[in-house]
Amino acid sequence: MPPFHAPDGTLLAYHVSGSGDPLLCLPGGPLQDSAYLGGLGGLTAHRTLIRLDLRGTGGSAVPEDPASYRCDRLAGDVEALRAHLGLAEVDLLGHSAGANLAALYVTRYAERVRRLVLVTPGAAAAGIDTAPEERLAAARLRAGEPWFAEAYAALEELTAGRGTAGTFGKVAPFFHGTWDAAARERHAASDRERNGEGAAVYGSEGAYDPAVTREAFAGFGRPVLVVAGEGDANTPPPTAEAYAKLFPSAELAVLAGGGHFPWHDDAEWFTETVADFLR
Question: 223 lies in a domain?
Fold first, then answer.
């Protein structure tokens, strides 16, 4: 698809696949190439997916100003894409850290959002803190796995405020419903496809104003779906439930045994859940 210009002139790319009404998709990471979203488990059979490559990722240009990687600055890029597409309103999906960007877009441009889907959402923009025990409880569902002991010990370190980048790497199995060869490859690819410089800026000081975002959510009366994975130690179900309660009327769908990428854990469940909501 032809690129478009962000408000500051940065040239941005997006990708279109599938058929049906458009669904604008914001990737997580933060600042990961949107390619990892793929067809979202087969959602392309129901909707035309429009995946935005955030600045400095995928086919989008690296901005002149690194400070423009901050999440609140990126909301203007999403609005520029909507205008470029000529859509009066959009159905919007944000995954993981991309849900923080979706939240800030709703905060600024609520009238442009027809339906909102938040998949295993990062909750920093809404000021929701996940209790350590919630993460550990989700992780304990995997206690029968051969890798569990080492991964759980690393998670205990991290939730206690200790650990290193290496420690974080050891908890990777808790992001996936099944820690098989395909999940390992996806995890390795996520490191290669992520803009580390941008990720460090994305949620930096000043990016979020939770009070303002919560006020916007409270007044957002359009349909909202929050999707969670039962075993996701990143966004455990209690966090997802707290997120859903910020809206006047939001649906919460939890995939049994699912992780942070539910379209890989049960593509049929994910596709049917999201497609039914969007209908």
Answer: yes
Q: Is 222 inside a domain boundary? A: yes
Number of domains in the chain: 1
Pairing type for strands 11-18 and 4-5 reads antiparallel
The pTM of this model reads 0.96
The answer as to whether 176 is a domain residue is: no
Q: Quick check: is 160 in a domain?
A: no
Residue 134 pLDDT grade (very low, low, confident, very high; cuts 50, 70, 90): very high
Domain that holds residue 221: 4-132+195-278
% of the chain residues with pLDDT over 70: 100
Q: Give the chain's mean pLDDT.
A: 97
Query: Which pLDDT value is given to residue 164?
Result: 83
Gap between the Cα atoms of 55 and 60, Å rounded: 5
CATH code at position 12: 3.40.50.1820
Three-state secondary structure readout of the chain: CCCEECCCCCEEEEEEEECCCEEEEECCCCCECHHHHCCHHHHHHCCEEEEEECCCCCCCCCCCCHHHHCHHHHHHHHHHHHHHHCCCCEEEEEECHHHHHHHHHHHHHHHHEEEEEEECCCCHHHCCCCCHHHHHHHHHCCCCCCCHHHHHHHHHHHHCCCCCHHHHHHCHHHHCCCCCHHHHHHHHHHHHCECHHHHHHHCCCCCCCHHHHHHHHHCCCCCEEEEEECCCCCCCHHHHHHHHCCCCCEEEEEECCCCCCHHHHCHHHHHHHHHHHHC
| pLDDT band per the 50, 70, 90 thresholds, residue 133 | very high
